[in-house]
Amino acid sequence: MEKRGSWGSRLTFILASVGSAVGLGNAWRFPGLAAKHGGGTFLLVYLVAMLVMGVPLFMMEIAISRKLRKGAIESMRGINKKAEPIGWAATSNAFVIVTYYSIVFAWVILMFLNSWRFASMTQDGEAASNLFFELTKTTGAIEGSDIPGAVLACALAAWGLIFICIRNGASSVSKVVKFTVFAPVVLLLIMAIKGCTMSGAGAGLAKLFIPDLAAFSDPSLWVDAIGQVFYSLSIMMAIMFAYGSYLGDDANIVVDSLIISFSDMAVSVLSGIVMFSTMGGTGMLDKITDSGVATAFIVYPQAIVHLTNIGWLNALFGAIFYLMLITLAIDSAFSIVEGISAAVSDKFHLKPKTVTIAVCSIAGLISLVYCSQAGLAWLDIVDNWTNQINLIIIGVLECLAVGWAFNLEKVHSEINRNTKKLKAPYWWFASSVKVVSPVLLIVLFVWNMIVLFSKNGGSYGGYPIWAQVIAGWAVSCLVFLSGFIAKAVVSKMKKKGFVEDNIVWDKPVAAGKLSGSTKKKSKKK
């Protein structure tokens, strides 16, 4: 069995984690929610949610996986054998997410390759907003099965890039993130400078940063802020379990977690500056929406063609915008696959590279559904259930398993193991994991159910009920049944000689039991 992979340096781990956390949602959903909820008001509530829920849960996953040297599935089994299905649910849900996230990545590549077409659309917002539909041939409904050749080619390119980035686990990721994390920040700064120099940018920035006190009375403000923090940090998706398992024993989890969390927030704010200044400068402030797809592929193209009266310059800024989205998307996409690969390879003692090839191949085939003309509609349904239902339930279950079915002081001790000055207070960590986070997530879940059943009559997006059952409820059932299905498979494998790892928190894991590779072998029990 290969030794477990490890990060080449502390900086590499931080960059990889920032890259995973900072994704497309930072660039398009965060600004939309800020516009929806009074700008500075949303920023303040988001900061509070980050401190009381985001950071503690992030630290929790990193600490558990660093201690046990395992991915999500085995880490949860190390907490409590009955909690293993939670790890399977997180891993399975992440698999579903990457099947469609990869196609959003492909759409971004497609728009980047066609950004030159903005040059002939100067001041023609309608043509710019129709470019995405022209390229993808999407119907926006559960209609049409044809797959445009250009979309298919970009999907193959997206999966190829994902595999190249993680083909050797932590080793290859370490090389890639040194570029993919800094590149979007540089590109965002370029766009921010351009946006802030436009007349009307001041109105946009004022809308972003000046709080609207009336927004505090809207309960959806708190729900959206909690949701954005939860979705943005890549927790409950098997990713941080994988990344934490590659950490060295000398890592300072407290400091690194704070750096990663607030770097994620900083990029979100920078993205907000880009969006609000550009929309303010083009007189389109009222068009900012919390729909990521609409913002990136319909609304922002309209702003691009109104930036200047020089066609080639508009096209250049369009290329910069979509290149920025590419660099944001690729880190998040390959981190999801790495989280899945690490969890499955640890469980079944398989070579991580073999699992990665299998995951990319199977997920790639499934993702063809989203390449079709009906792909956008299918994606919308699956995304709603995986994020608004599955991910939240997984979060609640994980908090209950760690906070109530395990000795939380052990996790807290692991978090503070290498920090001397800046320690995570136990009252803050324990209250978050045991009470605040699960309560907030339950409130978020209940709110989503009220919206779905009370306001929308149990139907989402106006799609056919049969489509919602197949792509929504059925997928959710499979996600939460995956752990029990896997248990049955493992039981049969045991009859043929398969032996599960003996995972014990208080004892180091035997070097021979580790899957992956590590620079330092653990002491044998």
Task: Write structural notes for this entry.
There is one protein chain. Helix content is 72%, strand content 0%. The chain has 525 residues and is an all-alpha fold. The model is unreliable at 508-525 (pLDDT under 50).
Features:
disordered C terminus; mainly alpha; 0% strand; 525 residues
User: Beta-strand percentage?
Assistant: under 5%
State the share of residues found in helices, binned by percent: over 70%
- Through-space gap between termini: 17 Å
Biggest beta sheet attributes: none
Number of helices: 21
| Average pLDDT taken over every residue | 91
Number of strands: 0
Which structural class fits the helix and strand makeup? mainly alpha
Unreliable segments (pLDDT under 50, ≥5 consecutive)? Answer: 508-525
Radius of gyration over alpha carbons?
22 Å
Order of helices and strands: HHHHHHHHHHHHHHHHHHHHH
User: How would the global form be characterised?
Assistant: globular
Question: Could you provide a short overview of the structure?
Answer:
The chain is mainly alpha-helical and 525 residues long.
Secondary-structure map with pairings?
Layout: H1 10-21, H2 24-36, H3 40-68, H4 72-79, H5 84-113, H6 125-136, H7 149-166, H8 170-180, H9 182-196, H10 201-209, H11 219-232, H12 239-245, H13 253-281, H14 292-304, H15 311-348, H16 352-366, H17 368-371, H18 375-404, H19 408-415, H20 426-455, H21 465-495
Helix pairs in contact: 1-8, 1-13, 1-15, 2-11, 2-13, 2-14, 3-11, 3-12, 3-13, 3-19, 3-20, 4-5, 5-7, 5-15, 5-16, 5-18, 5-21, 6-14, 7-15, 7-16, 9-13, 9-15, 10-13, 11-20, 12-15, 15-16, 18-20, 18-21
